[in-house]
Amino acid sequence: MESRRGNPMAAEGEFSELAATRRIQRLSSHISPAVATPSAPLLQTEACVSRPKKLEVNGEALSLYLRGKHIDIQEKVYKFYNSRPDLLTPIEISMDDHRELCMRQLYALVREAGVRPFLYVADDPEKYFAIMEAVGSVDMSFGIKMGVQYSLWGGSVINLGTKKHKDKYFEGIDNLDYTGCFAMTELHHGSNVQGLQTTATFDPIKDEFVIDTPNDGAIKWWIGNAAVHGKFATVFARLILPTHDSKGVSDMGVHAFIVPIRDLKTHQTLPGVEIQDCGHKVGLNGVDNGALRFRSVRIPRDNLLNRFGDVSRDGKYTSSLPTINKRFAATLGELVGGRVGLAYASVGVLKVSATIAIRYALLRQQFGPLKQPEVSILDYQSHQHKLMPMLASTYAYHFATVHLIKKYSEMKKTHDEQLIADVHALSAGLKSYVTSYTNKALSVCREACGGHGYAAVNRFGSLRNDHDIFQTFEGDNTVLLQQVAGDLLKQYKEKFQGGTLTVTWNYLRESMGSYLAQPNPVTARWEGEDHLRNPKFQLDAFRYRTSRLLHSVAMRLNKHSKTLGSFGAWNRCLNHLLTLAESHIESVILAKFIEAVKNCPDPSARAALKLMCDLYALDRIWKDIGTYRNVDYVAPNKAKAIHKLTEYLSFQVRNVAKELVDAFDLPDEVTRAPIAMQADAYAQYTQVVGF
Amino acid sequence: MESRRGNPMAAEGEFSELAATRRIQRLSSHISPAVATPSAPLLQTEACVSRPKKLEVNGEALSLYLRGKHIDIQEKVYKFYNSRPDLLTPIEISMDDHRELCMRQLYALVREAGVRPFLYVADDPEKYFAIMEAVGSVDMSFGIKMGVQYSLWGGSVINLGTKKHKDKYFEGIDNLDYTGCFAMTELHHGSNVQGLQTTATFDPIKDEFVIDTPNDGAIKWWIGNAAVHGKFATVFARLILPTHDSKGVSDMGVHAFIVPIRDLKTHQTLPGVEIQDCGHKVGLNGVDNGALRFRSVRIPRDNLLNRFGDVSRDGKYTSSLPTINKRFAATLGELVGGRVGLAYASVGVLKVSATIAIRYALLRQQFGPLKQPEVSILDYQSHQHKLMPMLASTYAYHFATVHLIKKYSEMKKTHDEQLIADVHALSAGLKSYVTSYTNKALSVCREACGGHGYAAVNRFGSLRNDHDIFQTFEGDNTVLLQQVAGDLLKQYKEKFQGGTLTVTWNYLRESMGSYLAQPNPVTARWEGEDHLRNPKFQLDAFRYRTSRLLHSVAMRLNKHSKTLGSFGAWNRCLNHLLTLAESHIESVILAKFIEAVKNCPDPSARAALKLMCDLYALDRIWKDIGTYRNVDYVAPNKAKAIHKLTEYLSFQVRNVAKELVDAFDLPDEVTRAPIAMQADAYAQYTQVVGF
């Protein structure tokens, strides 16, 4: 039972050894259950003089604050596809047709709508991600197909290559003459990229590299755009150079090479390249993933993407970076944009999903008090519990990922080293944290919409199936969280050696000492609403947890590595490390949310954001209450007060839930689910099935 | 962050105010991280003299103990369909073709394989559910299609009708000449069955009922078998009788009627019946769900399923049951078999899913210690954390649902009233609890298999999509849990009035008093392994929680109902009530698991079961540690010991994980995922894509 809805302590005033204070009793009397008339929720059967009945939300101001500066290009995309029913994906479509349709959707974007995403990949990532979000809302397969072409294939050429590559390939990639793939993953190696086995052996006589798949485990697998449409592939392979010593060759580690896989004119598979179709997937079936085997495929020496390492005519290796590991890190570092994009796109999916589930929950009525009309299901405490913290989280992740994109854009401009490290860890953490959350939320939303949530037209099936792999591609979530933990530990060590910390975890530098002190037994009992809703209390609680986790895991690793070695010690502490990484990411998300509340210019929008920020913070503290109780950071009476306040805030958010989802500004053409239409939802739904 | 992997307190010996005892330190030194060679896990780098290195599991004995007495008929089903590739569902199939295929699968079962499920619906439910499990493993749509025909349509006729109905319909239902539907749900009413609006008005002149859909909200929706194949429908409608008073009519509440919807010979839709297709669903697209509207459809008086209420020739109503509510309860009570079947089938899905994920985790290697071979991903603590408590839960739910089926069979024989109430609550609780768990587990398994888990051939997509609706149909999970809570409260009140309790919650009768005493501060600190693995400690902890939740919610309801009325009070306590219901179901599951361990005749199988039972129990206590800490049922040192032991037991289970999934006895033809084949999995996988 993982539910954190209620626990005996928090729920039972009657049993508590520590009597609840009057203040909490007064508060609890305000948490009246929701009994609503059909059209408008009329709550608060016990009047509450000191509180406004319902927050007034200036939806327009809130929406303006949320939406970025790239509304225009998104509207352009929406408008274009809405005017082209031939380009919209039907509910039922075969895999082959879906792949062709996605390719046509992409051609139309570039060649008809005149949107040129490749122009922005390097120079205006914010705009690029805005296009990707809009395109993904037409069909997520289309969004991923576009990402494969421009961010993965195109991005690898311009980020890992040099001027000669840009000169030769930019235009073809941009105008889709040069469709391409990103061939990194192999059948046996996904996360462990340094374990890849494909080889690129330099032949000094012919001045060529020879690409080989040494065994079945090294077959390139899951390569998007490979099964049908790709003409080129960026192939990651071990660079093998001939040497004059007894071994005869030297393995220089994983490098990236441009390998033509199909003829530019005939589209025939080129000699030595074997392509198979990876077939049906759980979702994203509009993307043609293929498997590639190479048998002595020859490419010119120029096809090495040589930004971080090059081979001269006579087979000498040169690099500005001293070690294989540094070159490898630099290479992968350039690919971080994919993670940034996924974290952001995942929030987009969460917005659509939460909007559908909440609009339906407002519409749907079931049961009610004796001889009174049925009530909206969002008036049930259990339904508020399912959806209101989710809505608050959606806002939280929105601000966090917008922040990440800004940092990333800055990084692409300045190439500042600290910023690079920071964006690397932050994108790994947010991608992992947000996609895991959205994946669970999609199931919660489907279930919250009952049987009608199971109708394909109402979207949860395809959203979940398409989004599912966000947890795995561009870095397995469990692996990425370990990178976050590793980075924190590195910072931790540097701190104790007097070094500086990168920006995301300034809080650790500033106040690690104070967080590690014993919890204050007086504040541990404070339970007033003002205190619990104070951002300082909330942020302190999040950071306290992170600091303790970091300090303790550092000591455990130190202890265990003496007997188990570093790999063994890491594995012994793995659960602890993952919890640390999540705790850190939550601290960052909360800090960004608090900042976003503070910076919101409109007072009514700011009040709505503050309400959700409080719900987000307290819900998370409550979900982890065991941790806080164990170290007496929170006394039993305070735990109870946090729980009650969380229920109350959920109820408060419910009262403005319509305005809050409206502020996402998702038109009916984007949500598309009949049960979530903004007018006559039931009628539109019955019409869909033919009545 | 809902993760319960580790928390600062449990993880950091260094910070704890309460120093961990030597015993725990000794224990923790045994929890060595898993560093394995490729083929066999070699663990325990620090030797542990007192423990066996690896449990020896007698797989055959364990399997024999698990599998029921209906292996034969299941094997017959497997064998029949494996010999008939024309009857196997391909990965890609259009909805229309899928529906036709499912109908053919069902015809073949009855007319070619000679399996006759309808014979067992009433008389041998265990056998019926065994057939359903086997059929569902061929294609879940087929399983549900069969359930609609025999359990819902057939079941309603034999359970709600009388001899005349059985005489007239039994054979046709059995041999599939009379295909039928179960038309309960309406567009606007799912959970609230008493709110249905379809009417059946008696016309005394023609001795007929007239079936009408009064408005769009009353259109029968999601009716399985209606869109294409059904000839009849059991329609739930308000029985309206003419009266001689001023109102002219009397609403007798919801009753069930047999309504022919298509011509037996021509299959044309009958006059007055309008049928639309509900279209594509998230899953189960082999089942043809339709929507039905009735316009003055006339049926003979005999078509009222009159077991609990009848109408005479002159329009007089008679019933053995005194009130509308009692008749409604009796009617719905007869439909409980569907829930029993779903709970059991959900465990079947969980077994397949866990088997695939665990077999793949044993196969897959990624990363490893420096200059050593890569390790199996199941050797990672994080992966053990994902899958080992899940494996233990699968065993737990297996025994619990087998118990439920036994009770249900007994109930069908004895019609004992207490047993009926008990089976009603237990089936509601287990169906809800198990299907929610399986739904989450399917996503965890997909993610645990990384990219290869996203290949459609590896099953997680279709399993999740098909299973998803198990949470909703046959009773929305959130609604069903409330029925459990309601039943507990009823029992609670009766107890205090000196009445008897039904069998499932004997524990409440026997020991509620002792559970409600203040926790013992001495035992709250006991942290020895013998104590933590003692079933008495585990069961006491589960039951203590349930008893407190029950007692406290009863008091809260009592308090709030004075100001809010009963509906308002219930809603105010709703989260609390749902937590109570889940806690109770967990108590029942654990009790049954402990019993199953005790009764296992083979000592080695028993030891394996005991290991998993301990993991199940301690993992659940750890997941809810905040609750136990809040009331000081568990002191900080004990919380820490529980967490460490959970990690250690997960590691122990990992060492026999292969044997434990093998004991489910699922042949490769049932699991079907190439990545989980018992030999040459990678080779079979590459072959599937064409290499």
Overview of this protein structure:
2 copies of one chain form a homodimer. Chain A contains 25 helices and 11 strands. The first copy, chain A, has helices spanning about 10, 20-30, 60-65, 70-80, 95-110, 120-125, 125-140, 140-160, 165-175, 325-335, 335-365, 380-415, 415-450, 460-465, 475-495, 505-515, 530, 535-570, 575-600, 605-625, 625-630, 635-655, 655-660, 670, 680-690; strands at about 180-185, 200-205, 210, 220-225, 230-240, 250-260, 275, 290-295, 295-300, 310, 315-320. With about 700 residues, chain A is α+β, with helices and mostly antiparallel strands. Chain A folds into 3 domains: about 60-175, Butyryl-Coa Dehydrogenase, subunit A, domain 1 (Orthogonal Bundle); about 180-320, Beta Barrel (Butyryl-CoA Dehydrogenase, subunit A, domain 2), CATH 2.40.110.10; about 340-500 and about 525-675, Butyryl-CoA Dehydrogenase, subunit A, domain 3, CATH 1.20.140.10. Chain A starts with 7 loop residues before the first helix and ends with a helix. In chain A, helix 7 packs across helix 11 (about 335-365), helix 12 (about 380-415) packs across helix 19 (about 575-600) and helix 12 (about 380-415) packs across helix 22 (about 635-655). At the A-B interface, helix 1, strand 7, helix 12, helix 13 and helix 14 of A face helix 1, strand 7, helix 12, helix 13 and helix 14 of B.
